[in-house]
Amino acid sequence: MSYSSKIIESAVEALSSLPSIGKKSAMRLAIHLASDSFDKKEKLIAALTSMTNDLKICNQCYSFSDTAVCSICENPTRDRSTICVVETIRDLIAIEDTGSYRGLYHVLGGVISPLEGIGPEQLEIDTLITRVDELEAKEIVMALSPTIDGETTIFYINRLLESKDVNITTIARGVSFGGDLEYADEFTLGRSIKARLPYQQRQIL
Asked: Domains in the chain, ordered, with CATH?
């Protein structure tokens, strides 16, 4: 792909480095931005600058936040006896968009994956156990993607919580095995959250 402008070429290279954006899509975006009004470009620049300089990680659930504690963790109307454990912030957003869950969240930052060299110590598992104690949580909803690594992570966390007075549940099988939560439609994901099962019962099933 040849360019008449090094500036446009640089913009295309930057945009195409983003997930799911190929060179042609990046070119369309770059041309659109170059041809659009100054105000729109200024808003985009301001948003990206703010993400770089001001965006924080919540020190309780490890999601994105504007302050030290995110708006979900600070919300007094949320059910503080229930914690939904997710792999990524994208999964948190997907579940929140369903409107089917009103408890708190905890972002692990991944799942246990020996093949990729990811162990429990590299995830926010110890902080989850601490939160369970501090909040005196009654239910932990394991909303991890239904993969072998996801199942391994659920099993590991369940073993750590066995001695505590807390129920471990998992989302129903509306999300197919091997699938990612972020790609499930809102209706299916919402139904899976509402129809969650006790972990031990699901193992029997």
From this structure: 6-53 (1.10.8.420), 76-204 (3.40.1360.10)
**79-to-72, 83, 86, 103, 182 alpha-carbon distances in Å:** 10, 8, 17, 4, 23
Cβ density class 175-197: b for 16+ within 10 Å, e for less: beeeebbbebeeebbbbbbeebb
Backbone angles phi, psi at 110, to 5 degrees: 145, -170
- Measured between its terminal Cα atoms, the distance across the chain in Å is 54
Tens digit of pLDDT for each residue in 62-100?
A: 999 999 999 999 999 999 999 999 999 999 998 999 888
pTM as predicted: 0.80
Q: What share of the chain is helix, strand, coil (3-state, %, to 5)?
A: 50, 15, 35
pLDDT tens digits for range 105-156: 999 999 999 999 999 999 999 999 999 999 999 999 999 988 889 999 999 9
